[in-house]
Structure formats: C-alpha cells, structure tokens
C-alpha cells in the first residue's frame, strides 16, 4: 500500500487532512480505523487481525500508519499495545462560496471501509466516485429520517431507481450505526451531517 | 371475511435482493406461509426491470428475481391505473403533495407516478376488489402519504403502512 509519508513532527491540521485522504482512498485502512472507532475496549493488534480477518503485516503497517499520521493513538505503554481512533471531523470546501462544506466524518470512512467486502458499495464508488458516495450518504441519512424517497434521490442524482435503492439499502446499516438515535424530520444543522 | 391487498413498491424488492439473499428467501417463505400475493403497480415492475444502467459490471440487484416471483405466483403486476376515477387521481395527487411537503421539495418535482401505490390502493378499494390494503415501502414519506391520502378520502380505516426495511429485518431477524 502506498501511503503518504508520515510527518516528522506532531501532525498538524494539514497533515491530518492528508492522512484522512489516505483513509478515503484505502478501504483496508478505513476498515481498521472504523473498527478502532467502534470498539469500546481499545483493541490490540491481534484483536484487529481476528476481527477483520486481515494479514498480520497489513495490520501492523496500517496501525503504525494510523498512529504516525495522528488518526489513532496507542493507549498502553507495554505490550500488547492497544489502539484508539482519534475522531475525525474535516470540513471540505474547495470554493469559499460553497454554501455547505462537506464534513468528512467516521460515517463516510466506514462506508469506504465496507467497500472492501461489499461489491455494491465498491461498484457504486467505481461509477460515482468517493464524492458520489458522500452524496449518497447524505441521501441515506435523509431517507432513514423519511426526508427523501428513492425516486427523488434517483432523479436528483441521475440514477435509476434500482441504483438509488441499492445504495440506500447498503448504507442503511452505516447510518443507523453512527446515528442510532436520529430524530425523524429533524431539520437542525446546515452542514451535510456525514 | 375481509379481503386484503398487499401492495409493495420497488424498495422492498431491491432491499430483499437476489435469490441468494436470505431476505428474498424470507419474503418468499412468508408469502407462501400466509398465502399472500404481493401486488406491484406496472410502474414498479418497470423500475425493477429497468436495464438503462446497463454496464459490464452490475450490482447484485441488477437482475432481480421479480419475474421468477411472478411465475411462482406470489407477486402480481397490477394495471393500468384508472386515472379517470376521481378517487384514484385524488389519492395520487394528495400523496404527491404529502411527499413534497415531507421532503421539502417543490410539488412539481414529484412525479405522479411516484404515487402509483396510492393509485393502486385507491382503485382496489374503490372498485370493491378488496376491503383493506397494506402498503410496503422503505420510503417513509410515501408510505405515510398514502395512508394520509386514503384516510382523507371516504375510504378511512382501510389502509396500513409497513416500513419495508423493518419488515424484512423482522422476517429474517437480521439487520441490514
């Protein structure tokens, strides 16, 4: 895996942005990050390997990379080391006139991580890009709250009803995992709550 | 004994997936166990068999077993809708308005066909074909809109909405 080179100093905001870009482009890294973020007891490397069924080398490399780039931290001084994810909430607006910046949060990273073993999410990213998946997540959040229908999403994103319905189905669990107590018809917040 | 029509939309069948999917098999088993036939409006059949996305690679839902289900007799296509029947037209218009309001969209962006389930329900009730209708959809705004529209017409207490994802999860005890 070709990750960006970790900074030699304490990661600042730009370093963390670059490391988040690594996550967005690397489903395995995204899966490991998500596992750390979702597991209450900070897991050991062995536990990560067992839970995700990944190779030992991949796990060691990925955990080192996550800690080097400020996306995770080691929570024990002695072996076996335990790891914890550092929360990500990155606002992205290329153009300052853009009304609603994208928020890159663990929900999007989780969706990308699942593309490693979910062929529908993987194909959706192939067709629509990571940005397209970010858009679809916004619709999935609204759909779970009853604020959009499959047909409306299909029209607005120029999808078939089948494609819209398929990605809504695949993203449902992710939305419910990260928004377990979502409020129906909650209109609060102006940002895309990814 | 009262007769009941079970009307489903595309979201239920997309969520239940292919014949390899446990949710599809649970849906088929439930239909057979309860001797239930799911009715889909023509529009829904078109959505489920739409091949306009044609690509070399396909989603696992790109070829849904809807024709197999129809052949097996537990799904049937209903149509055409009788738009000259005022109850059908009103139910569809009311449902579109409800969807527009709940989703914060302009009314003219909601297509009448989005309310095909409402039209189908109104037609089956109005012609006396059935006494009650249950609609299955994962689109909460549409499901609630249909219930509101049918209830506001002079066909009250004869409509029920079941949210499609939860329905499938309950059948399989397996979340999405």
Helix and strand topology:
The complex is a heterodimer of chains A (194) and B (176).
Chain A lengths: L12 H13 L1 H12 L6 H8 L3 H13 L3 E3 L8 E3 L4 E3 L9 E3 L1 H9 L4 H26 L5 H8 L3 H18 L16
Helix pairs in contact in A: 1-2, 2-4, 2-5, 3-4, 5-6, 5-8, 6-8, 7-8
Chain B lengths: L3 E5 L1 H7 L5 H12 L4 E4 H7 L17 H7 L2 E4 L7 H18 L12 H11 L5 E6 L2 H13 L6 E5 H9 L4
Parallel strand pairs in B: 1-2, 1-4, 2-3, 4-5
Helix pairs in contact in B: 2-8, 5-6, 5-7, 6-7
Protein name (chain A): ArsR family transcriptional regulator
Organism (chain A): Halocatena pleomorpha
InterPro entries (chain A): DUF7437, Tscrpt_reg_TrmB_N, WH-like_DNA-bd_sf, WH_DNA-bd_sf
Key terms:
heterodimer, A: 194 residues, mainly alpha, Arc Repressor Mutant, subunit A, two-stranded antiparallel sheet, 6% strand, globular, disordered C terminus, B: 176 residues, alpha/beta, Rossmann fold, 5-stranded parallel beta sheet, 8 helices, 14% strand, PIN-containing (chain B), ArsR family transcriptional regulator (chain A), Tscrpt_reg_TrmB_N (chain A), WH-like_DNA-bd_sf (chain A), DUF7437 (chain A)
Structure description:
Chain B: Pfam families: PIN_halo (PF26425). Chain A: This is ArsR family transcriptional regulator. Chain A: Residues 30-88 form the Transcription regulator TrmB N-terminal domain. Chain A: It comes from Halocatena pleomorpha. Chain A: Residues 116-178 form the DUF7437 domain. The complex is a heterodimer of chains A (194) and B (176). Chain A is mainly alpha-helical and 194 residues long. Among the domains of chain A are: 13-85, Winged helix-like DNA-binding domain superfamily/Winged helix DNA-binding domain (Arc Repressor Mutant, subunit A, Orthogonal Bundle), CATH 1.10.10.10; 118-178, no CATH class. Chain A is built from eight helices and four strands, in the order ααααββββαααα. In chain A, helix 5 (106-114) crosses helix 8. Chain A is globular. By secondary structure, chain B is of the alpha/beta class. Chain B has a single domain (4-172), classed as Rossmann fold, CATH 3.40.50. Chain B has eight helices and five strands, in the order βααβααβααβαβα. In chain B, strand 4 (132-137), helix 7 (140-152) and strand 5 form a beta-alpha-beta unit. Classes of the chains: A mainly alpha (194), B alpha/beta (176).
